[in-house]
Amino acid sequence: MFNTRLFSLVRKEFIQITRDPRTLVLIIIIPVMQLFLLGYAANNDVRNVPLAVLDQDRGPEARALLDAYRAADYFRLAYDVGSEDELLALIDGGQARAGLIIPPDYGKQLNSGGSAQVAFILDGSDPTVAGTALSAAKLIGQSKSTEIMSERLARRGAVLQTTLPVDVRTQVWYNPDLVNAYFMIPGVIGMILYAITSILTATAIVRERERGTIEQLIVTPIRPWELVVGKLLPYTVLALFNAIEVLAIGAWWFHVPVRGSLLLILGLSALFLMSSLGIGLFASSVANTQQEAMLTVWMTLLPGIFLSGFFFPLEAMPAVLRYLSFLMPLRYYLTIIRTLLLKGVGLAEIQNEVIALTIFGVGIMTAAALRFRKRLD
Prior knowledge:
The chain has 377 residues and is α/β, with parallel strands linked by helices. It folds into 2 domains: 49-173, abc type-2 transporter like fold (3-Layer(aba) Sandwich), CATH 3.40.1710; 179-376, no CATH class. 66% of the residues lie in helices and 9% in strands. The protein has 14 helices and 5 strands. Strands 2-1-3-4-5 form a 5-stranded mixed β-sheet, with helices on both faces.
């Protein structure tokens, strides 16, 4: 016999779910978002690595080598520089992930039947990108050498030489051994500041509303901005403490280098917190329950995590997702923290990311604070 009591209970639960359409929509959208993000962003097949070229030869042989790198689709010849200092600055700043230096006598060495050396410099701060680029650089050099040897044999019938005509000498900077922990641990700091802070902020404020204590705070002489700052400041302190904790353990246990200024790292981490706290504050202003607040935050966390370069290289993503990644504050912070820790550069090399992070932080926090204040009124 069918259990009518069980049926009534199940029916009641479905009615409760349909009475909260906002939560129902979020529950339906999040799996679809995960599907598309994992389907397109979860890819380690790196392509279009930005390459800076210092061509000191400028001859047809050098152009043929550049055509070989361009045709391979692993690299994008993004910069044509005039000096080694300019090339190094691009790699330090993260605009170029690799650099190719062609010596002045490259064509002369090949035309004389000898072997020419080229230098290939790789940014090792992302082991996935660096490993793929390292293998591709060597394979392209070997392929070009085979082509040149075939031409020499056909032209002169020469004896096959044992040394390769094009000798690609690779150097990996910042992380020569391609240790993955050097890449992931700075990312964990960003994840803590981004995910935990926004979730705790959103749920803490909504919890006050659920318990009815938010009304008690409103009737007190406290001003709206004082209420906002008072609610956000403890989570700011806790987030910075967690960041320092992860950084200290990472440096001590995993030997992650800390080459940049600690004060600059903490200052820019506090700047990034404006975005994550603003997201949490905004979620609390649109949600009525802690469950709604959590789901709202997750709607922003999922694209932020997958499109920031935390798990998967941005160079491996489709062009549409790469453009969307510019809307994710976490993308800029991960570039900043990894650059400061592994490269030890100053503020000038990361100024574009700092400007973008400032715009996002001020914009998100201002919009969230205005909406939260309106909700209080």
